[in-house]
Amino acid sequence: MRLALDGRRQGCHGAPFKAGRRPCAPVRVAPSSGIKSRSSAACRCAPSAAGGISGAGEPAGPADGAAAAALADANVLEEAFATSTGLVDAVQQDEAEIDFLGESTEGNLHLHLVDSLRKGKVGVINVFGMQQLDDIYDLPLAKLKAATQSVLDVLDVPESFPDGNPQRAIYCSRTLNLRSIKAIGYDMDYTLIHYDVNAWEGRAYEYGLETLRQQGVPVDGLRFDPDLVIRGLIMDKEFGNLIKVDRFGLVKRAMHGTRMLNWQEIRELYGREVVNLRNEGRWVFLNTLFSVSEAVMYMQLVDRLDLGMFQVGAGNISYQALYGMVSKALYRTHVEGKLKAEIIQAPERYVELDPEMAQTLLDQRDSGKQLLLITNSDYEYTNKMMSFAYDPFLPSGMRWRDLFDMVIVMARKPDFFNYNMSLYEVVTPDGLMRPVLGACKGGLYCGGSARMVEKALGVEGDDLLYVGDHIYTDAALAKINFRWRTALVIRELELEIDALARGRPHRDALKELMMKKELIGDVFNQLRLSRQRWVHGHTANASFEDEEGINETLAQLLMVMEHLDDRIGPALERDGEHFNKRWGYLSRAGLNDKSQLNRQIEKYADIYTSRVSNFLRYTPYSYFRSPSQSLAHDRNLTRYYERTYVKKQQQAAAAAAAAAAAGGGAAGAAAGNGTHSGSSSSSNGSISNGFSVSINMGPNAYNYDPNDPDSDPEHEQDVV
């Protein structure tokens, strides 16, 4: 890119602008202390004579910002319509309230009843078989589900998760009302543009090897192995290891070089270690798929360093120094632009096209949301990639730039979320730039900051949703510093979900083995304790008169448990092999716990999904509700409920039936109202017998079948 300022390259203070140097000293941005009142002020940037780059590559006129605002207003007005029941319109900012889940109602549709219906709120209802409003309370859930799906079938809309494809679902960690979101920002690489990981990272790996070869590093014979690492692992630069930790920071699996460590070796190295990712001098978290080539190269070279193959410089080099060499080699690959120049020439070799992406962004834009593109890539690369991936799937006459209210290239994240950096406007298709004081809607810029974006668009805090693939630079900083809502794109999620499904029989068998050991272990521990009390004379239990027999029993139970361990150990190592044979599942660490990656996702991403086009099924008006979070003490309560409360209800029902049979019909009817029958359907349609118990009263009761573990919503957490 070049700067246009009287024909010379200059910085923001008139000093010569040098490539690769920040134009202006950054100013630290403090995290937001709270969400201020939302500003609706218009952009005050004065239009330039030269203008900016429009969607078609021509200079943009001064009215671009006003036109965009008018379009947004028109989209709101389109949703106002009259019915026989009343007027329907969108809830505006000054009318918005906070709902019972803590979300703003702004953007929701609201019905203003006509005067004749306002008091009783009773009208003619003819939808989904209902005749009056109260019918919804008694309408069986299965019947409603079938009725709603019949409408969706007419609209050619696929079933949603969990009945639809779970690989294309959007998962919610924190409740999010998409209707109240005013602006959606997107990262580009691995978010709006998805690459063939093997092709992109394999080529980056080759460029990195060539750089190291020129430095005398022994790289001959090395080959890119994408299965060697997965996202979410952590490089230990002190020991030359790659580790997988759980949500507490405890190491569960480890690899030195390309050799997996056993449990004893892990215990000796990390037994007292709690991994703290803030110690960046030692730990490197693999946040994104861009980290794959770096980690593969580093681990392979650790092997060669251990073999004494390095003859670089004077003396031995450390694992820390080796990482520095690898990191710089890969950094040069990106900075020098060789790889991206190659991709521009043949994008079809590297980019995986998704025709649904364009319609997804069109729907969001037409719903009145402002769209932004914020990427660290330069303008030439961004333009070529977005044109290749989006232009063929847009309506005739549209280009990718027409989708966005603002585009920011070379944003230099994470600094974009940490500092107020100088801003430059891109004014020509070949990348000519000039410094500007502020951003305007419709503009194309380089640099700047998140604070500038908020000011230009008249939004802030939870008005914005930012979507990216990098946990730290896309999600964590946007949330911590600006309270933006966040969405994380994890493409491997599709493989993870399929692997979890394929591994379900193995996991169930492993849980059964663990449960057998727990049952036997409970008896063993009780016998051991009783023997201890008898030996110390604290009990006169007659069953311990045969000490030799008790000792023999304990020994045999030990043999059984050790035999179980022989099966459990290898089974634990194979758990998750359908995703990765070395590291197991992306989201799990060990049998029952979450991985550090999954903890980061839950902490910083309000929602997460495998690709942006998954929003297409959910519409721009979706309300994402986080599921109930399982706690250690709320597992297996179904059985407790059955033993404690259902039994009492059955006894009450039996007593009522007996009273009725004895002539106390009126009393029996009163006593039996709303209770479960011992073996048949009661008046409210609920059923309870020895094999199935109705958890909730009423015609929509949920039946738990002990023979069908999927009928228990706590099944995944029911691990003894």
UniProtKB/TrEMBL annotation:
UniProt keyword Iron present: no
SUPFAM superfamilies: HAD-like (SSF56784)
GO molecular function annotations of the record: 5'-nucleotidase activity; metal ion binding
Pfam families (alphabetical): 5_nucleotid
The keyword Nucleotidyltransferase is assigned to this record: no
Record's keyword terms, sorted: Hydrolase, Magnesium, Metal-binding
Feature: compositional bias, Low complexity: 668-692
Disordered: annotated span: 666-720
InterPro entries according to UniProt: HAD-like_sf (IPR036412), HAD-SF_hydro_IG_5-nucl (IPR008380), HAD_sf (IPR023214)
Family: Belongs to the 5'(3')-deoxyribonucleotidase family.
Protein name: 5'-nucleotidase
Organism: Chlamydomonas incerta
